[in-house]
Amino acid sequence: MAVEFYPxxxxxxxxxxxxxxxxxxxxxxVVDEILVMFRDQAPKENGIDIPFQVRKAPPVIxxxxxxxxxxxxxxxxxxxxxxxANSMDQDAWLDSALCACTAEEDADSGETKTKTxxxxxxxxxxxxxxHGLKALFPPPEDDQDRLSGDNIVTLLQGSGSDxxxxxxxxxxxxxA
Length: 176
Description:
It is a single chain. By secondary structure, the protein is α+β, with helices and mostly antiparallel strands. It has two domains: 5-117, 2-Layer Sandwich (Zincin-like); 118-166, no CATH class. The protein contains five helices and eight strands, in the order E-H-E-E-E-E-E-H-H-E-E-H-H. The chain has helices at 10-23, 79-82, 87-99, 125-131, 149-158, and strands at 5-7, 34-39, 44-45, 48-49, 52-56, 73-78, 101-105, 112-116. The strands form three sheets. Strands 1-2-6-5 form a four-stranded mixed sheet. Strands 3-4 form a two-stranded antiparallel sheet. Strand 3 and strand 4 form a beta hairpin. Helix 1 crosses helix 3. The longest helix is centred in the first third of the chain and has 14 residues, at 10-23.
């Protein structure tokens, strides 16, 4: 079944604008370039419904004749979750989505530079359920910080499976 997208009503767009003016001052320069839309069903990640997605607008859309606004960001809200949420949850989702967006005017050229950013913290729902927000941790700086297949092989080759992880050419200290 194909996912359907449709524009958000003016009331939702106004809420986004209000949150920008209140808490996201860097986005004021692009507030009219944020397209707010709904998708009919929430996407899932690891079996969890995702209430919103944020995308940097692809440059290719700016050349389309039917696109009258140079959009910088797409805020895509999950309609099925939105309709069941209270206004506080909805505002939290909008605020979180806007946190993913950044805009800065270049002092020399006057050009506006926009980008999306990764979340400040990561975590796992089970650990958060057990330990609260203490279970959150910062994301890696970039993908190179993650273990790849090659990194794992190198790591495993460097530690012997029968010596508790000591280097093969090192002796264990005497236990007195």
